[in-house]
Amino acid sequence: MFNLNESMNYYLCPLPTDMRKSFYTLSGVVADYMQQNVKDGDVFIFINRTCTSMKILHMEYGGLVIYHKKLESGTFKLPLYDEESHVFRMTWQSLMLMVQGIDADKVTRRKRFELCLK
Predict the structure, then answer these.
(1) How confident is the model over 42-87, as pLDDT tens digits?
(2) Which long-range contacts (CB under 8 A, 24 or more apart) does 1-6 make?
(3) What phi and psi, each to the nearest 5 degrees, are found at residue 85?
(4) Which pLDDT score is estimated for 2?
(5) Residue from 84, 80, 13, 91 nearest 48 by CA
(6) Regarding beta strands 53-60 and 63-70, do their DSSP bridges make them parallel or antiparallel, or are they unpaired?
(7) Which of 30, 76, 32 is nearest to 57 (CA)?
(8) Rounded to an integer, what distance in angstroms lies between the CA atom of residue 61 and that of residue 89?
(9) What percent of the chain lies above the pLDDT cut of 70?
(10) Are strands 63-70 and 10-12 parallel, antiparallel or unpaired?
(11) pTM for this predicted structure
């Protein structure tokens, strides 16, 4: 089942990723380059060089899960991030906008109450 939600931490790998990589090689990128631990339950997002394919790596109860989306046409719009950072933190909402092909810069956001948990 699709077991991702907004309470999780989402991290985008800023380097283009070879989509032939699978569970253990992507876990190696998380540990070596992103300096994170895949076993923490966080969600790691990888995009290829042409921005037409996305893999999401997540550790859930029982093992690793990869979600893979390959676009038939168009590209994913990447958020602006510091080119020198090894990881870019995203929100669930921004990931969903990216997957659905919605440009957040052209969307107006209505005022809503936001609960701040710290």
Answers:
(1) 999 999 999 999 999 999 888 899 999 999 988 988 877 776 677 8
(2) 2/67, 3/58, 3/60, 3/65, 4/43, 4/56, 4/58, 4/67, 4/92, 5/92, 6/91, 6/92, 6/93
(3) -80, 155
(4) 66
(5) 13
(6) antiparallel
(7) 30
(8) 23
(9) 88
(10) unpaired
(11) 0.83
